[in-house]
Amino acid sequence: MVGDGAGTAVVSDWWPSALGAGRWRRSRRASKRRKTSGPAETPPVERFGPGYALARLIATPVYRLLWHVHVEGGTQLPRRGPAIVAANHVSFFDSVVLVMTVRRTLSFVGKVEYLDSWKTRRVLPALGMIPVDRSDGRRAVAALKIAAGVLKAGGMFAIYPEGTRSPDGDLHAGHTGAAYLSMASGVAIVPAGIVGTHRIQPPGTRIPRPFRGVTVRFGEPIDPAAYTGSRRHRRRLITNDVMTAIQSLSGQINAEQSVGAAHAAASSVEHR
User: Fold this and answer.
1) How far apart are CA 173 and CA 166, in angstroms?
2) Contact by Cβ (8 Å): 133, 123
3) Which end of the chain has less Cβ packing within 10 Å, N or C?
4) Any residues with CB less than 8 A from the CB of 224 and at least 6 apart, and which?
5) Phi, psi for residue 68 in degrees, rounded to 5
6) How far apart are CA 52 and CA 12, in angstroms?
7) What string of DSSP letters covers 93-118?
8) Is residue 32 part of a domain?
């Protein structure tokens, strides 16, 4: 069952938005074309297909039965209009939790290789994944263009500023992609801290473990208009504030501080 610490229900818009044509088939065909003819242009942003509604209808009761998810700060998410959700990333299950928690249609970037597996080729695109070819050197630019299209259409886009799953559970340095996207679109970033998914599906685990709890905390939106200075300076300031907020929400240890403390301890031992 999903609860909101603020006690306010989050309005879902996933059902009416699921009336367009299915997207996963087009993504699959685009993936095949890329493999035979090289990198293709960024695919256009399209409405969620019937598979999204079907996936939600099937997954929601099972999800609520198997995992207890506590939501704090749900009112920080806008009921309508564009928003960027920036979260920590410790487990493959993070994307599932975000999609099921936000309840609005939520897009996120995933590697195109997921379309090669029968286990994920239909489920992930149906739940909002936008496939991106990570072998292409221009993948970051392509992902940002896709995200910009989602936001321009009034949708929500989730991003993991760390770029990949944390290998040790610590919070690693954030990339400036979320800040770049926020500045270019004028859309605020809602920081999110996910706690507990590493117990549900640790790295290397294929099947999520049931009957474990998860907490998702959303923080105050970070408005790009509040920052001044050069573009590069603003991107770094926004990124720093986003990562600070995520660390506060998730309770994770900062990887850089952890390494610094370990080096200091080792140096102290050497000088004894």
Assistant:
1) 10
2) no
3) C
4) 179, 182, 183, 186, 187, 188, 189, 234, 238
5) -95, 120
6) 13
7) HHHHHHHHHH-S-EEEEEEGGGGGST
8) yes
Secondary structure class of 125 (helix, strand, coil): helix
Asked whether the CA dihedral 227, 246, 151, 111 is positive or negative, the reply is positive
Which residues constitute the domain of residue 184?
2-252
Is the Cβ–Cβ distance between 246 and 220 less than 8 Å? no
The residues near 168 (Cβ < 8 Å, ≥ 6 apart) are 255
**What is the distance between the alpha carbons of residues 141 and 157, in angstroms, rounded to a whole number?**
15
Q: What is the CATH number of the domain that holds 127?
A: 3.40.1130.10
Spatial CA neighbour of 188 closest among 52, 58, 82: 82
Please give the Cα distance from 272 to 270 (Å, whole number). 6
Helix and strand numbers, DSSP H then E, in the chain: 9, 8
Residue type at 134 in one-letter notation: R
Q: Which two tokens stand for residue 170?
A: 């610590």
Residue 183, token pair as written in the block: 């500045």
DSSP 215: E
- 262 in a structural domain: no
User: What confidence tens digit (pLDDT) does each residue in 57-112 have?
Assistant: 888 899 999 999 999 999 999 999 999 999 999 998 998 899 889 878 889 877 77
Q: What is the C-alpha to C-alpha distance for residues 245 and 87, in angstroms, rounded to an integer?
A: 10
Cα separation, 180 vs 224, whole angstroms: 9
Are 105 and 156 in contact by the 8 Å Cβ rule? The answer is yes
* Amino acid letter for position 161: P
Number of structural domains found in the chain: 1
Evaluated on CA atoms 135, 138, 144, 150, the torsion sign reads negative
* Per-residue pLDDT reduced to its tens digit, 212-223: 999 999 999 999
Q: Helices 50-66 and 93-102: crossing angle, nearest 10°? A: 100
117 lies in some domain: yes
Is 265 a member of any domain? no
